[in-house]
Amino acid sequence: MISLRAVTKLYQGKRQIAALQGVDLEIARGEMVSIVGPSGSGKSTLLNLIGGLDRATSGEIRIDGQALTALSDDDLTRLRRDKIGFIFQFFNLLPSLTCVENVALPLHLKGLPRQEIDTRARSLLEMVQLGQRLDHLPDELSGGERQRVAIARALAFSPPVLLADEPTGNLDTHTGADILALIRDLHQRLNSTVLIVTHDASVAESCQRTVTLRDSRIVGDVRR
Amino acid sequence: MILLRLISWPYMRKHLLRSVLTTAGIVLGVALLVGMQTANRSVLSAFNQTVERIAGKAQLQVSAGDPGFGEEILERVQSLPGIRAAAPVIEAEADPGFPGQGKLLILAVDMTGDRSLRDYEFDNGDQDVIDDPLIFLAQPDSIILTREFAARNHIVSGSKITFDTMQGRKQFTVRGILKAGGMAQAFGGNLGIMDIYAAQSVFGRGRHFDRIDIGLNEGVTLEQGEAALRKLLGPGFTVEPPSGRGRHFESLLGVYTLAMTVSSVFALFIGMFIIYNSFAIAVTQRRGEIGILRALGATRRQVRVLFLAESAIAGLIGSCAGAGLGLIFARTLTGVSADMLESMFGVAQNVQQVVIDRAFLFFAVVLGTGTSMLAALIPARNAARVEPIQALQKGRYQVLGAGENRLRRNLALCAAALSLACLPLSANRVFFFAGFLLTLLAALLLTPFLALELTRLLRRPLKWLRPVEGALAADSLLQAPRRTSATVAALMLSLALVIGQGGVARASLSSIEEWMNNSLNPDLFVSTTENIASHGVRFPASMQQELENVEGIAEVQAARLPRIDFHGYPVMLVSIQMESVGRRIKRHMVAGDEATMNRLAAQGKGVIFSENLAALVKMKLGDMVDLPATTGTMQLPIVGIVRDLSNQMGTIFIDRQVYIRYFQDDTVDVFRIYLKPNISPETTRGRIVDRMGNGRRMFVLLNRDLRDYISRVMEQWFGLTYVQVIVAMLVAILGIVNTLTVSISDRRRELGVLRAVGGLRWQIRRSVWLEAAAIGIIGLVLGVATGAVLLYYELQAIQHDISGMPFAYEFPWGIALLLLPVILAAALGASIFPAERAVRGSLVEALEYE
What we know:
The complex is a heterodimer of chains A (224) and B (850).
Chain A: E1 2-11, E2 17-27, E3 32-36, H1 43-50, E4 58-63, E5 66-67, H2 73-83, E6 84-87, H3 99-110, H4 114-127, H5 143-154, E7 161-165, H6 173-190, E8 193-197, H7 201-205, E9 209-214, E10 217-223
Parallel strand pairs in A: 3-8, 3-9, 6-7, 7-8
Antiparallel strand pairs in A: 1-2, 1-4, 4-5, 9-10
Helix pairs in contact in A: 3-4, 3-5, 4-5, 5-6
Chain B: H1 2-14, H2 16-55, E1 60-63, E2 69-70, H3 72-78, E3 83-94, E4 104-109, H4 111-114, H5 128-131, H6 134-138, E5 142-146, H7 147-152, E6 160-165, E7 168-178, E8 191-195, H8 196-202, E9 208-209, E10 211-216, H9 222-233, E11 238-240, H10 243-252, H11 254-285, H12 287-295, H13 300-345, H14 358-385, H15 388-392, H16 402-422, H17 429-465, H18 467-479, H19 481-519, E12 524-527, H20 543-548, E13 553-559, E14 563-566, E15 569-576, H21 578-584, E16 589-591, H22 594-602, E17 607-610, H23 611-617, E18 624-629, E19 632-642, E20 651-655, H24 656-663, E21 670-675, H25 681-693, E22 699-702, H26 703-746, H27 748-756, H28 761-802, H29 813-839, H30 843-848
Parallel strand pairs in B: 4-8, 5-7, 15-20, 17-19
Antiparallel strand pairs in B: 1-10, 1-11, 2-9, 3-4, 3-10, 5-8, 6-7, 12-21, 12-22, 13-21, 14-15, 16-19, 17-20, 18-19
Helix pairs in contact in B: 2-10, 2-11, 2-13, 2-14, 2-26, 11-14, 11-19, 11-26, 13-14, 13-26, 16-17, 17-18, 17-19, 17-28, 18-28, 19-26, 19-28, 21-22, 26-27, 26-29, 28-29
């Protein structure tokens, strides 16, 4: 499902910094993988490259057989919209939109009929147990609830790939556990490929596979 | 200073584009002010220099306005003790037809006595012409030119030049070339000297002079000479030093100068909002920085001074750049202004150079810098009030506090109530202008609140139009009213200016249309110039009979239209056969009975006032008018007040016989010709030209020609004010670019999310475009509303304070409707660059942006 071949990401500044160097990685459909490593090891860079938020300096990345390098910016955006769901540490909900509007955002961007968008956005929110919060603004929700809305938004097109960057990093332990349970549940129900970047050992251990990064390289790949 | 280097400079460098946009408002405002004023000063200075150079050693000048005076006055003046020299002068313009060289100012003098007042220095070999004045007297086709003009046109002594005269196109022989310098520099060097008695017939002056230049005996002071001459000549004459002519010219330009100044200051005022907007945003965005400074021990005063110093530097840089740009503007505007003033007031100009007034440039730079600092005053105060603890907390601070909003609203309501209270008291001009300023204040204070409410109203249609992009665009405005409100205010003001100017133009044009339909009903006009405003050359009275004999002509009215000074206003005195006018014209009466007015005026028992003059000098029906004339003061009652737009500063109509009696001037400026039924004006024009055109300078205009000419002059007039409106709009559009640039920067993360979840580039762009369109629409709605009120005050000010013209209030719906696509297009244009910025850059950084 996800394939990386000799992927390198360099940042050009006053001096060149390598965020990733020669990374090779294969993730099969339906796997749930955690990515761990110390700060600055390249975890988030790896996730951003897989998610098409950033482009690799060299090497090849394929999602569902499609090479990202060859895609134009708009094609990359379409791929992101249709095949990848993002869950961010800081939720990244639009504060002026209600829950249902936030979830409907990618559906509108694709130009689906309004009726279909409304139905789908509501059912997604019900799936994450927020059916009673449809018209609330993000500011009116708890951290856990905001992350649920973000998860519902990430699932708008039932994407085959779900990328989560520290999904529990901004939540208390109890709420974090709830969110993780929800992601696991969705993974099982939807059979999507899930990648979670985390610092939390318990989150990492709950995944079938853990990839460890250090100094911009993969230094461990453990399957359970 | 250290704070400026450590804190302000890196911020300005980081936000270079915004800093440039902020300053651009001041640049344009100052450029317009400097450009317009410098152009005006250059025209005025050229006039003054001409006056000064041709005045020579004359200490005083005796004149009687446009009507001039008879030759006998010269003898009376010369006989007065204390007068060393008295030299008669006629001035007129002639067009020698050299392409691109402009007109010649003809100074006609009596060579036998003129050298006592003016120095004539000739090129080698030409001295005879002045040593033996009989050469001039004996040869009336003689003319002296300046070396500069001669060189430009390859003329030497003995060359011939031709120009139109009252005796037709006539050839003149160049008898001498004046050396460069002194008098030869007058009128940009386009000066011709003629014999005064030849000029009388060439320019149709009869036995009249325009003025007498006076030199006083040693020991006689100016005051003594002036008093003696006034006593001798009576109130119909003006006795003053040559510089007085400059003052008259300045007063003639009064309305024009005022209009230019007001619009320039308005543009600077709009620029002030752009500065305010930028600083208000900067304070909001730099709260963290301010918090750190305060935590480290910076006092409130230091923070306030820091922001004020930033604004002073931005203002100084902007003002200096604006002053430079203004001088470049002035080069173009000077020519345009000179052309317009000539066609409007008939005073030909030859402006060779832009006059740079250093003191004014300094004033403009101080004004621009001061405006910038004034605009930053409130943001600087807000910056100083920031509490360190709050500032160091993350969060949004764009929202206007409910208390702040309420305070503004209440202040606005108070201002609006006070302005309404001023309305019934507006006969007192202090209350009138206070009312105007209070209305403007109320509109400005209400802008944030109204902008917010209008955005709320717009959210639904925008969301309906584009569910995501539309809603986000509206929300962006709703979340950051501080970011938007000053830009909306700037746009509102500039659009109000458009509506105001457009309304005045529309009102003027409709009034002029009505006046032309009523008063300009002759079929043909015969004038000495294609520019009917100029009265330098006149027809003899005898021409009326000749015209009446032309086949097809039913009636001829002879009109003399001199400009005279009345109560300090340059008023037009229309002397015409009132009996004929009464029969031919249906007047728009303002006061009095038309039949009685026509009868009394035709009998020479009264004068008719234009409505604007009556308003300016506060006179009413029945009041006695003391009109100083060359033969004494004419005392006649006002027998009617009519609507007439012949002259910006008012018109007095008197019967031609009364004028001739009092002013001893029977020359004619224009013949108004009515044809017999079913006679073609074109055919008759041909007959007039065939029969009379050969022998004299004459222009026969069809009714539509004159109307077209008047329309062209009006277009020129409004054309210049529209330039200022365009600059004001440009400043406001810069405000939109500024606001959107900040908006993009503020919403970087939001736009990043949008792209992360599948927003395509064109969808992001559309969101920015819609935000710009929303700002445009809100500015338009508020601008149209404010403009409607501004128009009322402008028309009232024109009627009561400027020209007395009573234009009817007519809202310019056409312009308002036209503004919708214009503003939408401008807003979209303004959003292109910010929209491109929104879709460029790293998505990862955008998502991490805090």
